[in-house]
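Dear Dr. V.,

Thank you for agreeing to look over these. As mentioned in my earlier message, I'm a first-year student in the group and I'm still getting used to reading structure tokens, so any feedback on how I've presented them would be very welcome. I ran two proteins. I've put each sequence directly above its structure. The first is here:
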Amino acid sequence: MLAGDFYLINDFQNEANMAKAVLELNVAHAIFAGHFPQHPVVPGVCMMQMIKDLTEHAMGNKLDLVRADEMKFLSLIDPVSNNIIQAELKYAKEESGKIKVTASLLKDALIHFKFKGSFIQQRAL
């Protein structure tokens, strides 16, 4: 989970299987020292984790990714010039228990990342 350290959730709205959030990236986070020095960029794996975190927040359950049908990295997120981004996601729980998710990270009309895939609720050990 990256929320609270790598990014903050400044606003979160969740209704009718749709969630929207305003996220504030932590420009001083240590990950940017290595990705990349002098030119920080949000790693793709962090974008995916943010979608997972927000889906868990919306569903109220810990989830496991079971399928990523589409992961499109469309534009870089430079946290120095753009540390406030939006997230939008739609989710639906199927009879099989899978949670289908379509999500985007964006800044106004500029889409940074698109995801379509499925999660399942984590099972207790």
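The second protein is here, in the same arrangement:
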Amino acid sequence: ITTTLYPIIIPKLQWWKWSGIDQPGGERGHWGWIPRYCLKGGEWDKAWRDSIRMLTVLCRDPEDPKRILGESTIQFMAHNQESTDAASGDMHIIVHDEPPMLAMWRESEARTMRVGGRLIVAMTWPDDPSIPVDWLNDEVYEPGIRGERDHAWFEMYTSDNPNLDQKAVASQAADWSTETKNVRLYGKSLRFSNRVHPLFTDQTQHWCFTCGRPEHAGENADAHGIEDKFRCTSCGGPHVAEFNHVREFEVSTRWPAIWLLDPHPRKPHMFLWVQVDPSDDLWVIAEGLNDGDPVEVKKHCDRVERELVLEVALRLIDPNMGLSPSSTKRERTWQLEFEEASLPTNLADDGEVGRKTLNTYLAPDLGRWQPRIHVHPRCKTLIHQMKRYVWADYKLASERAQLQVPRDKDDDFPSLLKYLMNSNPSFGMLHGIAQVIDRRRGGRPKALNSRQDRNRLAR
């Protein structure tokens, strides 16, 4: 605390101290933020108690500055203190400089809740992905950017800071990698930089087709249309597109669908519905989690497929779990259990190529000016897992030459998308399957729900 508080923070509060790159009084900088007439006794030495690092300021009526409404105290505490040291008192505002530990954040919530106070964290995301800030991502960042639970999140770019020498900033940034620039200049997180599918995003980003990767972009003053609306800050090129994989869209009643299933003996069965459009782009329209037996899953599927008016042309099951004994009858496999519940499935292809193929679908396509896979916001678990599905961390430096293996955590829905990619879905093939029908319920086509039907079409 002594290496930060006294040389950096306190001078920004003292009215006679100047902070900035210009000479005192210049445009790029500021004087101390607390006016002299707001200090108790009118002097810093009278308002500041160094033994407890506490500053007392006068709260004056903004309509009548001569009228003092009361006093406020600001206490500066160490970032690395134990949470138990903060386990008392009521605070109207608690500000954390850089991410605190979860225990301290919880204590801060308790200290502010009784007086309707506010919690603020001013931070740069750690550039070490191993630092545990998952809780901050889940509880503060994501609710903040969505405006949920009275949270708000503001991103301030170093490149927009008027108090810095931007020529020096640009010179240094030219030597940095894209990942370092995203953290140091634009406030992006590296926590999940080892994601299996790093391009997936539920926040609007920019893709530079010249650089072939996500880049920060600014408005192009010379734009003549959507294809040159932005300009890449790295290469200066105008071929930049906005992209976001999560978006609202209407479900088509004319596009064939694929249903993918990952059965589980000890947690809910998980499944997805994906439609394929005439351009062979993919639209993830719904997800399902059901902890019942296959019959209950069948009822769940019937309800969703009836409400969305879906034509399911193909049903795929996780080949590993599909051939494993079910929890109800150990001598029978999950695939057989679901087939007897009128949900016959084919074993999916578990090949690793599906992950690479999915990454190509996640990248914006130059001809379409958008990604080739889209996810409806209702698929909340899929979105959550795609953002947290990571490669297993290496524990020894000698292991870095080994083939990477994804962690088992949060792998359910990403694995289903891998199976989807391995099936080489195309509108023509699936639409043809859907037309081999058994008409029922007023002429509605029935998908191929038996192995015989699918084998007959294949022949």
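From my reading of the second output: The CA atoms of residues 217 and 232 lie 4 Å apart. DSSP finds 14 helices and 18 strands in the chain. Does that match how you would interpret it?

Kind regards,
E.
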